[in-house]
Design a protein that fits this description.
Layout: E1 9-13, E2 20-23, E3 33-37, E4 40-42, E5 46-49, E6 57-61, E7 70-75, H1 93-115, H2 149-154, H3 174-177, E8 181-184, E9 190-193, H4 200-208, E10 217-218, E11 221-222, H5 223-229, E12 230-232, H6 241-250, E13 255-257, E14 261-264, E15 268-270, E16 275-277, H7 286-291, H8 295-301, E17 306-310, E18 317-318, E19 330-331, E20 333-337, E21 343-345, E22 348-351, E23 353-354, E24 360-361, E25 374-375, E26 377-384, E27 390-408, E28 433-446, E29 463-466, E30 496-506, E31 509-512, E32 555-563, E33 567-570, E34 575-583, E35 587-590, E36 596-599, E37 612-613, E38 634-637, E39 643-645, E40 648-651, E41 654-657, E42 688-689, E43 707-708, E44 711-712, E45 728-731, E46 736-740, E47 745-746
Parallel strand pairs: 12-13, 13-16, 14-17, 15-20, 16-21, 17-22, 20-26, 21-27, 22-27, 26-27, 27-28, 27-29, 28-30, 29-31, 30-32, 31-33, 32-34, 33-35, 34-36, 35-37, 36-38, 44-45
Antiparallel strand pairs: 1-7, 2-6, 3-4, 3-7, 5-6, 8-9, 10-11, 18-19, 23-24, 23-25, 39-40, 40-41, 42-43, 45-46, 46-47
Length: about 750
């Protein structure tokens, strides 16, 4: 059968109802039909009829194409031979005809497509697009390249300075034009001239130079100096950890601004007096997370936040504290505050986890439980005994093997361990942990194995203040002046004090740092003390000595919440909580805790049994069981817990005032060495007096109106001792006043009554 001269395609606009679409060309096989919807080929959902008919056939769809769809049916014949003719084989006419038919069909198709190509005449001349556009062209490179509309628009001369003449000479070279003014000669050609010295033009040229900012004043400094204080990271979110560190090192002592976006960090060493500032404060807190589990996801996706991601396999470094030379386990961290005077503002630190399947995952309250998941980093922020650290508008959220923020008071720049790498190339310069200020911040560690657990405390703490792990109460092991004792160190360096935290939400706070002093070894926070001041080696119920009552660390928390985490307090002194709310955790306190005051707060944390911890003496003996309510170092007022204010104690039926006993109250016990006895007034006598006038010319107070003495019946007389001799009461049974002589009640004539 010969192949007729046919158009091998047909195009329809679907109406949403028709399912049968005819085609009017010859096909040998149904596979030679190609169907497209709006230029996209489809291979299912239809059938082909009329195969072998020169007049064509139909394409029938199971579902009618949507209205407006451009349906194209085209004959597409593969350009390969289907039949392999054998030597001495039969040349069957039907087989040969079909092969030739397929060749003609292919030639017809390519002839049509060739007619759509961009062509030019055989005898030369330009290509003829026949009125059609040429799309998706690239920008020109060589001189003879055609240009796109976008390129022409970008080099538009509409705003250029134009002249009516057909030709204008070029301007002089740049080195000749430098610091000169543009002028025109008698022919109208451009020239450059020097400005008059001191003229406005001369001044403007000086200001326009790269060094011009140094000629403009800004208070007591120049604009150039002021601009040098603030530097901006331009590496973008794809910057490497090494590029970020190089930026911080190059701009040590300045305000280093990071734009919004995601940055991966690891042991980023912040130099002395350097500020890291993000794009905007992170104000999200735990309530929004409790009420909307996707809050963290919005922090990850919303623009405007500067996100430091702690993900991947981090480098680790071994740490050694200042008390002993033994190495501690290696840790990893995100930001490391290497020196004093560092500020971290408006930053979101996110701790990632590594799942059992090896994938890294950002923090999420909707993350699936994974018993084998681990946190990528040990800590979010690590401060090794540095002073003047400030943090504001910052949140540390996510999975951490240890804690979100570690204030490590025991670290120093000493490299005194066997093989420890703590100093990390001499970058650390720590001496003391003082003058710290955290404001408007959020610390939320999460369980990498159970991300959605937000009801109970977890092993990680949002904030940990940590001193040496060694027991420096041992004056034999750590005598004054020895290398082990680290003379003149209180936790770290020259001291640890004046730490202020405000406007916060923290998941768990841990305060535990061994205090020592410059004095004799016995005068450390310890359970060695006798009544009164001075040293000793006898335990007094495990309470700290009186010298620590109100001195030492000065740690203050104000206007915040300790939520879904524990509060652990040990070996610290002068800790204050003002208007702090606690929830879903336990308030642990040990017998080595110095003065702690809670004012106007509702801690809401479990106390009592299990929360009061008694730490053994250095010699292995055990002090009397610790009960914070009987410690003169535990003060609270206006709270949901038992009132305890100095010598005043009130808790249900146990309400009393301590009598003054020198050197006893501050030791937490009133019964002498080793005693758990607490003295109180057994009776309080109330005497009401009404006076019209009181005079005392001879040191004698004269009552112008009678005093009212206490009234008792004979059966309800108070029981007094010899120290109460001279006390008087009105015996209402007898009807007259009687006097206590120290051993008996007598009437006015000396008779025992």
């Amino acid at each position: 059968m010969s192949v007729p001269n046919q158009t091998p395609y047909i195009i329809y606009n679907a109406n949403g109802l028709t399912t049968v679409f005819p085609f009017e060309f010859y096909v040998i096989s149904a596979s030679d039909i190609q169907v497209t919807f709006n230029g996209v080929e489809i291979t299912t959902g239809y059938s082909v009829s009329g195969v072998g008919n020169t007049g064509g056939g139909d394409v029938t769809f199971i579902t009618p194409p949507a209205a407006g769809t451009v349906v194209m049916i085209e004959r597409v014949v593969p350009t390969f031979r289907l039949t392999d003719y054998q030597d001495n084989g039969d040349l069957l006419a039907d087989t040969v005809n079909k092969d030739f038919d397929r060749l003609w069909m292919a030639i017809q198709r390519y002839g049509i497509h060739l007619g759509l190509a961009l062509r030019r005449p055989l005898f030369g001349g330009p290509f003829n697009a026949e009125g059609f556009r040429i799309a998706n062209g690239g920008d020109p490179v060589d001189k003879q390249d055609f240009v796109t509309k976008n390129y022409v628009d970008s080099v538009s001369i509409v705003r250029a300075l134009r002249v009516p003449e057909a030709f204008v000479p070029l301007l002089p070279p740049a080195d000749y034009r430098a610091n000169k003014l543009l002028a025109f000669n008698a022919a109208g050609s451009p020239i450059v001239v020097l400005p008059p010295s001191g003229s406005a033009s001369d001044v403007m040229i000086e200001l326009a130079k790269p060094t011009g900012a140094s000629n403009i004043g800004y208070g007591d400094v120049t604009v150039a100096e002021r601009l040098s204080y603030d530097v901006y990271f331009t590496g973008g979110s794809g910057a490497t950890k090494e590029e970020i560190q190089a930026f911080l090192d190059e701009n040590a002592g300045r305000n280093c601004n990071f734009p919004a976006g995601d940055f991966e960090i690891e042991w980023s060493m912040i130099p002395r007096n350097t500020t890291i500032s993000g794009a905007k404060p992170v104000t999200v807190r735990s309530h929004s997370m409790r009420h909307e589990a996707t809050t963290i996801e919005t922090l990850l996706s919303d623009p405007g936040f500067t996100r430091f991601n702690l993900k991947g396999e981090p480098a680790t470094h071994i740490l050694t504290d200042v008390i002993e030379g033994g190495d501690d386990p290696a840790i990893s961290t995100g930001l490391c505050c290497c020196d004093h005077g560092i500020s971290i503002n408006n930053v979101l630190l996110l701790g990632w986890r590594k799942r059992t399947d090896g994938a890294y995952e950002a923090p999420s309250l909707t993350g699936v439980d994974d018993p084998g998941a681990i946190a990528c980093f040990s800590y979010g922020i690590f401060a090794p005994a540095v002073s003047g650290l400030n943090l504001s508008g910052t949140a540390v959220i996510g999975y951490f093997d240890k804690d979100a923020v570690l204030l490590d008071c025991s670290r120093s720049d000493q490299n005194n361990g066997s093989g420890n790498t703590f100093n990390i190339g001499g970058r650390i310069n720590s001496q003391s942990m003082c003058d710290l200020s955290f404001d408007n911040f959020f610390l939320l560690p999460m369980d990498p194995k159970q991300p959605s657990q937000m009801e109970n405390a977890i092993s990680s703490y949002g904030l940990r203040l940590k001193g040496t792990d060694r027991d420096i109460r041992d004056g034999v092991k750590y005598p004054r002046g020895s290398d082990g004792y680290a003379e003149n160190w209180i936790w770290g360096g020259t001291g640890t004090s004046d730490l202020f935290f405000s406007n916060f939400v923290i998941r768990g706070v841990y305060l535990d740092a061994a205090i020592n002093s410059y004095e004799t070894p016995e005068n450390r926070m310890n359970d060695y003390a006798t009544a009164g001041s001075g040293g000793g080696t006898t335990s007094v119920n495990g309470f700290p000595k009186e010298w620590q009552d109100g001195r030492g660390s000065k740690i203050s928390f104000a206007l915040g919440a300790i939520r879904v985490g524990n509060l652990y307090v040990n070996r610290v002194a002068n800790v204050n909580f003002l208007s702090v709310y606690g929830e879903a955790g336990t308030f642990y306190m040990t017998n080595l805790t110095g003065r702690l005051a809670i004012v106007g707060s509702h801690m809401g944390l479990a106390t009592g049994s299990g929360a009061d911890i008694t730490i053994p003496n250095v010699d292995g003996s055990m002090p009397s069981a610790y009960d914070r309510l009987f410690s003169a170092n535990y003060l609270n007022l206006g709270t949901a817990q038992a009132l305890r204010l100095g010598i005043l104690f009130s808790s249900g039926s146990n309400s009393y005032l301590r009598p003054f006993r020198d050197g006893a109250v501050s030791l937490g016990t009133d019964g002498g060495v080793g005693s758990a006895l607490r003295y109180r007034f057994s009776q309080i006598h109330s005497i009401q007096g009404s006076f019209g006038n009181i005079t005392s010319p001879n040191n004698v107070i004269q009552a112008l109106k009678p005093l009212r003495i206490p009234s008792y019946t004979t059966l309800t007389r108070p029981i007094l001792n010899s120290a109460d001799a001279g006390a008087q009461i009105l015996d209402t049974t007898l009807g007259y006043a009687i006097t206590w002589t120290g051993s008996a009640w007598k009437d006015g004539v000396g008779n025992i009554v």
